[in-house]
Amino acid sequence: SWRARCQERARQVKVEADIADEEDAAEAAAQAIAKAKIASRERIEAEDRARKRKLREKDPDRPKKPTGGGFGVFLNKHRKGFQAECAGQSVAAVSKLASSRWKALSEKEKKPYMEQFQKLTLAYHAAMRKFNPPEKIAKIRQEIEARRLQARGLIEDSDEEEEEEEEEVSEEEEEVDEAAASGDEAEEEEEEDDLE
Asked: According to its UniProt record, where is this protein located (predicted)?
């Protein structure tokens, strides 16, 4: 009858709606988990950046990295003169004056400053290769790198690794036992054949 068909169709629509709601809920849960993983990874990386920044600040023996390119060298060389010209003005005024003077230089005039910056950069990299951070700092850096790799899923917890190794060893032992058992059966069959 018509009424029965309508009721059956209403039941089908309700079942389809329930299934769609479950799929939406599952998808939303998966998205929430993905967002949580990303947020966790970002939080860990932010903490690590902050720790690295503190490490750099705490180590007075660490070589200083040259900054600013050729302009930085130019500014360091002429800073006192610019400050004298801008006496009583803000630091921004000194920077603006230095910037305008730098832009007014030709490429030929900028070249010695650029070369000096390259020399300073090479010297910095050489000093960093020779630089041995204190043991505490090196240990913290290793911890930071391990946490980063773990957050990205590139390495697993050491407990999980140990469990996997134990499972592999036990599987190998089982295979050896099975091979030995099958070898014993083959020997028994050979002995029976010899007796006959």
From this structure: Nucleus
Q: Which amino acid is at 115?
A: E
Q: What is the dihedral of CA 34, 39, 42, 43, to 10 degrees?
A: -140
Q: Domain for residue 117, yes or no? A: yes
Residue 80 located in a structural domain = yes
Give Cα separations from 84 to 15, 54, 76, 78, 104 (angstroms): 82, 34, 14, 10, 20
> 1 is written with which tokens?
């009858």
CATH code at position 75: 1.10.30.10
Stated pTM of the model: 0.43
Q: Which domain holds residue 79?
A: 65-130
What is the model's pLDDT at position 145?
A: 80
